[in-house]
Amino acid sequence: MSSALLQNKHAVLTGAGGGIGLATAEAFVREGAKCTIVDIHPQASEGVVALIEKAPSSVQYVSTDITNLQQIDEMVATAIARFGAIDVLFNNAGIAIFEKLLDSTEAAYDKLFNVNVKGLFFVMQKVLQHMVDSGVKGSVINLSSQAGRRGEALVAHYCATKAAVISYTQSAALAMAPHGIRVNAIAPGVIDTPMWKQVDAMFAQLEGLEIGQKKEMVGKAVPLGRFGFPEEVADAAVFLASELSRYITAQTLNVDGGNVMS
Q: Per the database record, which ranges form the Ketoreductase domain (predicted)?
C-alpha cells in the first residue's frame, strides 16, 4: 500500500543489489520515487532486474565501486542525467569481515575502512555537493549498525567503521543544516538477509558451533524475540527520506527490536 510519500523524488541507493538496499528501493518505488540503484556487480541482480521490469520508467541500475572516486563521480552524473536532481541518498553499501582480534590482519582493516568509511563518506560528500549546488533540501540516510553502538570481539574493525558512520552523520548534519539538508543514519540490529548465512557460517567456524545455531541464539536474545526483516529497515528509511521527518537531523535511528537503548 502506498501513500506517495516520495512522489517526484529521486533517490540514489548504494549497495542495493539485495537485502536491505533492495527492500528499500522497492519501498521507495512504491512511495513514488525514481531510484538509481547502485552496486559493485557489473550486472544487476535478479531482484533489481525484476524491479526494473516492474517499474521501467522509475528505476535504473549503475555498477559502481564506491572506493573509486572517479566512479562515484560518474555514478552521480549518470543518476542526474536520467532522473534529474538527487533528493535522497540511501548510503548503504558495506561489507563485514570476521576475525579474532589477535589474528586480525592489515588487509582486512584496509578493506573494511575503504568500503565502510572512505566509500560511504565520499559518496555522501559528492551527493551533498550536488544538493548544495542545486539548491535541493534533501535527505541523506547513512547505514550504520548496532555494531556501531558497542564493541564486539570478533568484528572489532567492523564495529569501528560503523561507529565512524555515526560520527560522520552527525558532522555532516551540522555542516548541511544551513542548507536545509538533513543527514541521519539507521542502525539496524540483526536482520534476516542472505548475508546472515555467511555470518552464521563464520561464527560456526570461529566459535565451534553448528550451522544455524548462532542465528537461533541471536534471534532469541533480541527483546522482541526474533530477527528483523529488510522491509522493516526500509520502512524507517521511507520515514527519514520523507517530509514526515522534516525536523529530524543528526540522529541515528535504531531498528533492532530493542537490542540497543539510546
A: 9-189
Q: Are 11 and 36 in contact (CB under 8 A)?
A: yes
Domains of the chain as residue ranges with CATH: 10-189+229-255 (3.40.50.720)
Q: Does the pLDDT of residue 168 top 80, yes or no? A: yes
Q: Strand 10-14: give its sheet, edge to edge.
A: 59-63, 34-39, 10-14, 88-91, 139-143, 182-188, 252-255
Catalytic residue among 61, 109, 158, 168: 158
- Cell readout for 28 is 521507495
Q: Give the pLDDT confidence score for residue 204 in this predicted structure.
A: 86
Average pLDDT on 20-38 reads 98
Query: How high is the pLDDT of residue 2?
Result: 62
Looking at the whole model, is its pTM more than 0.90? yes
% residues pLDDT > 90 (the chain): 91
Active site residue 158: yes
For the chain, give the longest Cα–Cα distance.
Answer: 54
Work out the end-to-end distance of the chain between its first and last CA atoms, rounded to an integer number of angstroms: 31
Query: Residue 194's pLDDT is what?
Result: 85
How far is the C-alpha of 65 from the C-alpha of 195, rounded, in Å? Answer: 19
Residue 71 and residue 64 in contact, taking contact as beta carbons nearer than 8 Å: yes
Report yes or no: 16 and 37 within 8 Å, Cβ to Cβ: yes
Please state at what angle helix 106-113 crosses helix 156-176, rounded to 10 degrees.
30
